Amino acid sequence: MKVQSQRFVSRLTRDTLALVLAGGRGARLKDLTAWRAKPAVPFGGKFRIIDFPLANCINSGIRRIAVLTQYKAHSLIQHVQKGWGFLRGEFNEFVEIWPAQQRVDTSWYAGTADAVYQNLDIIREHDPEYILVLAGDHIYKMDYGDMIAYHVDTNADMTVACLEVDLDTAKAFGVMACDQTGQVYEFQEKPADPSPMPGKSDRALASMGVYVFNASFLYEQLVRDADVSKSNHDFGQDIIPHIVGRYRVMAFPYRDTQTDTQAYWRDVGTVDAYWAANLELIGVTPELNLYDQDWPIWTYQEQLPPAKFVFDDDDRRGMAVDSMVSGGCIISGALVRHSLLFSNVEVDAHALIEDSVILPDVHVGKNCRIKRAVVDKGCHVPEGMVIGENLEEDARRFHVSPGGVVLVTSDMLGAPRRRAR
């Protein structure tokens, strides 16, 4: 399938309402989501995961955006209010928070489709022509205008953004089969034995959880699904399988328009994937370019002093090598190597941090050694503690991932409960 460059993208995006589904817990991230929803988890040194789909909307020209929240949403709501309140309401531009509020009955959001259904009255008031449904917990850059134009050009009822993945990875996704025109004729949600792509026996076509609907068509399908008692009220499990074969569902290939190769996309849903995706950013030319001025990622910007590196003695030199260090950090006679430090991290003398992701407001005491770890926000690592060198011992105190990454939180350190948000 080849996607042509389309005209009138700005008009189409102005007629689009984006719904960002941000109510999920993200349980596979373990204690990182004990007190925050997955979209609120910090990422990339200064951002949160939710910033990426929101920035994609703004950069695509979509200025009517609703964020649907549910699980432990306080920090997520605070972040969106602080960082995304720059749109002008008088021009009908907004980023609104739509919490689960039992608008239809006495239940909370039962599934992704139900989350949208329970807000149908608000959606209809905005009277969009098209509705863009997004997951709020993936890291990627995408021009949704191209996808909406493709949706209109192909006369689709629904369009699903998709990417190629290996068969083992496909087991965690919705898997599609489509004809040469791109029309989807089969959809399986998280199949045990995914169907491979024609001509690519080791690859499958996976849904990214990014959908475009004609608004009136979506209303009909949500109302129909709400009346099905045995439904899970989920897009992947119920809505899409029902409409495939009955209506025109198109697959939109997510490709880099310049190289025609698979574009960058990460599901940072496990501790290993989260650690790896953060450390990828340190590379000389990472796939995800955070320095791209043509497609900036916005976020709530704290007013912080520059990072500082102090002492230059032979046995006590503050330095960071092959690393990313955010504002407010102080590296005091310590060594940081191939690591990513978020804002306001303090590292005391003779400490060593290697291959690690250190979230905001962490204090690392003197003579500590931390390797292959994720240290959660607000942790105070006591003087002399060693993390990541003996995984058997680490497992008694912390969470050790299947890939050998050690996750450390304040609760695990035995500190008074500081709920990392």
Automatic annotation (TrEMBL):
Domain Nucleotidyl transferase as annotated: residue spans: 18-280
Reaction equations catalysed: alpha-D-glucose 1-phosphate + ATP + H(+) = ADP-alpha-D-glucose + diphosphate
Any one Gene Ontology BP term: glycogen biosynthetic process
Record-marked site positions (Could play a key role in the communication between the regulatory and the substrate sites): 70, 108
Pathway: Glycan biosynthesis; glycogen biosynthesis
Entry's EC annotation: 2.7.7.27
Glucose-1-phosphate adenylyltransferase/Bifunctional protein GlmU-like C-terminal hexapeptide domain sequence ranges: 305-408
GO molecular function terms listed in the Swiss-Prot or TrEMBL record: ATP binding; glucose-1-phosphate adenylyltransferase activity
Keywords, sorted A to Z: ATP-binding, Carbohydrate metabolism, Glycogen biosynthesis, Glycogen metabolism, Nucleotide-binding, Nucleotidyltransferase, Transferase
Binding site for alpha-D-glucose 1-phosphate: 109, 174, 189-190, 207
Sequence similarity: Belongs to the bacterial/plant glucose-1-phosphate adenylyltransferase family.
Function field: Involved in the biosynthesis of ADP-glucose, a building block required for the elongation reactions to produce glycogen. Catalyzes the reaction between ATP and alpha-D-glucose 1-phosphate (G1P) to produce pyrophosphate and ADP-Glc.
Assembly behavior: Homotetramer.
Entry protein name: Glucose-1-phosphate adenylyltransferase
